[in-house]
């Protein structure tokens, strides 16, 4: 593949998330959808409506045997690590839906396979790519907020997942922390430059009752506290099916000695975000709601792939985030 050639991409899994990422990538013009595979005829038909020239193949093995440069994986979580490793070992770049693995061990194995194969690895941690978080990260990097001592992260989804495997910890790796918390932990660590996390505590609940952190029961409400080497305290709260009076509550607040910054969803939306810089009792808007940011992580991966980029050492950050989740689950 040359730096000027559009990468030929295969799509494994074209359900709700998979087809959205396909649509974003096709609209960008960065890639060519060469092949797709999904066990559902309905999902295949929906994908072919977007990419009528793409070959419809029966499974991953068939995709790997095709003339592809990369693959987008949007399958159930239990399959992510194994499928990603298989694709990397076959010489393909990989973009995978989160979580990349159910444990830090699984994630580390995928990152190691990416490094060994010298192939690009991306994960759909999309909230980094909101205009608001980009602005907040710039403030943090410039030292505008002073010394950051506190971070509050919230992600409540009033509906929760609609697939049974999400509620089987052997298949999902965990509940709302694995599904929603992964985004917020990544967001905070990415914004702060991936500082060392020296202590992690957590409290998990199922249907309003506390459960052991290493329980086989999947949590639907969780709180966790992460203490960084600097002494900064990061607090996470996330849930499914919470009575919060709106579809979603998604917030990231950064508090420093010289100012604060907040990313908040607007009117309960899963997609519309506003970012604000606080100084004392005054606030200045940094960014208003935008259009297609959910595809940002996929587009970033596709641009790098089109430019010929191979293994990116930043992939080790995926393992760092997964290690924090392991600690929340007392693994």
TrEMBL record:
<dbReference type="Pfam" id="PF22725">
    <property type="entry name" value="GFO_IDH_MocA_C3"/>
</dbReference>
<dbReference type="GO" id="GO:0016491">
    <property type="term" value="F:oxidoreductase activity"/>
</dbReference>
<feature type="domain" description="GFO/IDH/MocA-like oxidoreductase">
    <location>
        <begin position="134"/>
        <end position="260"/>
    </location>
</feature>
<dbReference type="InterPro" id="IPR036291">
    <property type="entry name" value="NAD(P)-bd_dom_sf"/>
</dbReference>
<dbReference type="GO" id="GO:0000166">
    <property type="term" value="F:nucleotide binding"/>
</dbReference>
<dbReference type="InterPro" id="IPR055170">
    <property type="entry name" value="GFO_IDH_MocA-like_dom"/>
</dbReference>
<dbReference type="InterPro" id="IPR050463">
    <property type="entry name" value="Gfo/Idh/MocA_oxidrdct_glycsds"/>
</dbReference>
<protein>
    <submittedName>
        <fullName>Predicted dehydrogenase</fullName>
    </submittedName>
</protein>
<dbReference type="Pfam" id="PF01408">
    <property type="entry name" value="GFO_IDH_MocA"/>
</dbReference>
<dbReference type="InterPro" id="IPR000683">
    <property type="entry name" value="Gfo/Idh/MocA-like_OxRdtase_N"/>
</dbReference>
<keyword id="KW-0560">Oxidoreductase</keyword>
<feature type="domain" description="Gfo/Idh/MocA-like oxidoreductase N-terminal">
    <location>
        <begin position="8"/>
        <end position="124"/>
    </location>
</feature>
């Amino acid at each position: 593949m040359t730096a000027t050639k559009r990468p030929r991409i295969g799509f494994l899994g074209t359900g709700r998330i998979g087809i959205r990422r396909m649509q974003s990538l096709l609209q960008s013009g960065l890639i060519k959808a060469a092949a797709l595979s999904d066990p559902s005829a309905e999902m295949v038909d929906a994908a072919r409506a977007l990419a009528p020239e793409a070959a419809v193949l029966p499974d991953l093995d068939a995709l790997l045997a095709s003339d592809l440069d990369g693959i987008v994986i949007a399958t159930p979580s239990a399959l992510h690590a194994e499928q990603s490793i298989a694709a990397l070992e076959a010489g393909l770049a990989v973009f995978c839906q989160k979580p990349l693995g159910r444990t830090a061990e699984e994630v580390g194995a995928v990152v190691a396979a990416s490094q060994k194969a010298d192939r690009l690895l991306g994960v759909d941690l999309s909230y980094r790519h909101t205009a608001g978080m980009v602005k907040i990260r710039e403030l943090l990097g410039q030292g505008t907020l002073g010394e950051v001592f506190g971070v509050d992260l919230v992600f409540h989804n009033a509906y929760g997942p609609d697939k049974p495997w999400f509620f089987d910890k052997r298949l999902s790796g965990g509940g709302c922390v694995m599904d929603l918390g992964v985004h917020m932990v990544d967001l905070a660590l990415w914004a702060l430059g991936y500082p060392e996390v020296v202590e992690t505590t957590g409290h998990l609940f199922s249907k309003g009752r506390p459960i052991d952190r290493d329980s086989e029961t999947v949590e639907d409400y969780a709180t966790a506290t992460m203490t960084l080497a600097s002494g900064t305290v990061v607090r996470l709260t996330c849930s499914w099916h919470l009575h919060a009076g709106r579809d979603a509550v998604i917030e990231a607040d950064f508090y420093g000695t010289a100012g604060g910054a907040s990313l908040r969803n607007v009117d309960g939306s899963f997609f519309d975000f506003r970012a604000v810089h606080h100084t004392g009792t005054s606030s200045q808007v940094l960014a208003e709601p935008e259009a297609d940011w959910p595809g940002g992580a996929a587009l970033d991966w596709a641009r790098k792939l089109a430019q010929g980029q191979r293994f990116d050492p930043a992939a080790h950050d995926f393992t760092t985030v997964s290690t924090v989740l392991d600690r929340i689950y007392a693994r």
